[in-house]
Amino acid sequence: MDLTWRVLVQAAASAAGAPARVSAPGQPPQPVVDGLAQLAAMPVTSSGLVVAGSDEVRWEAAHRAAEPLFVGSAIKTFILAQCLRAAEAGQLSEDDQHAIDDAVRSPSSPVFLNLTGTTTLRSVLEAMIAHSDNTATDVALALVGPDRVRDLVRQAGLGSTRVPDSTRRLVSYLAGAEPGTDLGWTQLHRLLAGGPAPGPLRAPVNDVQTMMSTTDELVRWYRRALLGGVFAQLGTLAEFKRISAMADSIAMAVPSGVIAYGKGGSLDWGDFHCFCLAGQMIVGASPVTFCFTINWTGPSELVPGFFKDYVSAVRVVLQAAAQAGTK
């Protein structure tokens, strides 16, 4: 990459949230800078990155892009990619049926929580991305194995990205169970209904079971993956795009009518909270790749207000990027 075409806007999280440096050429649109400053001004730990252009970067704006943060379900893009790679290699088929039952059921499963039976891998992957269904995630992750997903992450050069063994093992660990323990659906169901935890609650940001990354790594991932850099066949890339375009989080911030791919993530665990949105939108014929993450600790009643402020800042950035791309 020709560094003369890059612009790094280090929007330090000062009281005013003002960018510390904007350098030209390739200066990003001022509303993009303003939107990142809006994100930086929130009383949270925040990170954001927007990169316009494909092989050649037209402009770039960043705020603490290298800081590892909890990104939640945003890491499910790696599970999707590895499942599609396995299908590409003939190890899996999207038409194969897989069991949905209490042996795999996991909290936060808006599609499969109360369903029992079998469904295709294709439907599992769609539920994982479109609705962030954790039961679907654990089915897909078990099929390819978490270590193979981590291998993909390492091959992509994403040294700060972390993928858990499963969502059930993640919740079990955060709930105080010993590392590697899967409490099972019955006990997790009781726990989330207010039952006793097996031990002291743990922080989601940890070195054992977590979902972490940086905005820089997620942007680099989408820039590479959506160019086909992790797949051997164009058909696999098309399927990755098709399913990634289904993510329900895209509509909350990407301008209406703009093609976009990505995955969001969120978590409320005790007094810890997270929002993340990562992906790419296509403006004209040019991609704009982005990631915005916030982590904070505080009372749950503040979550709706923080979410509103987060979405507002992200919308400002993406709307400005889209308008700049059409001029």
If you had to describe this structure to a student in words, what would you say it looks like?
With 327 residues, the protein is of the alpha+beta class. Helices cover 36% and strands 19% of the residues. The chain has 10 helices and 9 strands. The strands form 3 sheets. The chain has a 5-stranded antiparallel sheet with strand order 2-1-9-8-7, sandwiched between helices. The protein has a two-stranded antiparallel ribbon with strand order 3-6. A hairpin with a 3-residue loop joins β1 and β2. The longest helix has 23 residues. The chain is globular and about 55 Å long. The N terminus is likely disordered.
Explain briefly what this protein structure is.
By secondary structure, this protein is an alpha+beta fold. It has helices at 30-40, 76-88, 121-130, 134-144, 146-155, 167-174, 184-192, 215-225, 234-244, 303-325; strands at 45-53, 57-63, 69-70, 97-100, 117-120, 212-213, 259-269, 272-283, 286-297.
